[in-house]
Amino acid sequence: MQPIGVFDSGVGGLSVLQALRRELPQERFVYVSDAGHAPYGERDVAYVLQRSLAIGDYLVRKHHARALVVACNTATAAAIATLRSAYPLLPIVGVEPALKPAAVRSHTGVVGVLATRGTLASGKFKALLQAQSSHARFVLQACDGLAAAIEHDDVTQIRALCTRYTAAMGSFGNAPGAIDTVVLGCTHYAFATHVFHELLGPEVALIEAGQPVAQRTHSLLAQKITYDAAAGVPNVGTGWVELWTTGAVATLQDAAERWLTGSGPAHYVELF
Ligand code: DGL
Description:
The chain has helices at residues 14-23, 45-61, 73-86, 99-105, 117-121, 123-132, 146-151, 155-167, 193-200, 210-223, 249-259, and strands at 4-8, 28-33, 67-70, 92-93, 110-115, 137-142, 181-184, 205-207, 240-245, 266-268.
């Protein structure tokens, strides 16, 4: 059975892959971390677009992916429209900051959004913000360096940056005017959830998009289910993950051991 291709600039997309595996336990996944060209969030759009097309091409041509999940908010903003035109028949799912669920959940009507500089500057995000602006007040914070700190599991730097960026946003909690809901608008930040909870307190909800992306992928694939002609049974894989990185193999391997169960060894791939 052809796999589902998943990619991110680094290990952040493993947070989406976790949700995908829970949602689609029998599927095969090929994951690409583009750590050799990260971070995406502080690069220009043309660069992220070119990287996303190179990885899409690799997943489709070399691994015969039957669907793509862009497990990166920054790459989704920069490249999903172009990827969809390049592969019009392929189901392609992206991830974007979950502003709508956050606005629905918020009682104070004030929502914090943590994301990369690239995501916040994108036209796609501006349109999303515009569409939700009557439902909540959004406090935006670009988090330069945080994805890189999470990528390298630099615990001291993660805590320092989370502290600095949340302090810059105002007050948190249930009081009127305080931020009671925070959108984690970069897939890396899901791996700093425990730090944010410690800093912001238990009453502040953290919203990430792994689960909705997994459900969306499931429903797109359910519409496209194929059958083994000879046996007449649904063509499902056997719950298997292959990991590739353009950066350090050990970084992806260590992250997968921490956050994914049952994945195989990581491999290096050079992609231009
Ligand atoms: N994980 C990516 C995202 O969701 C960005 C990390 C980076 O800046 O490379 O936006």
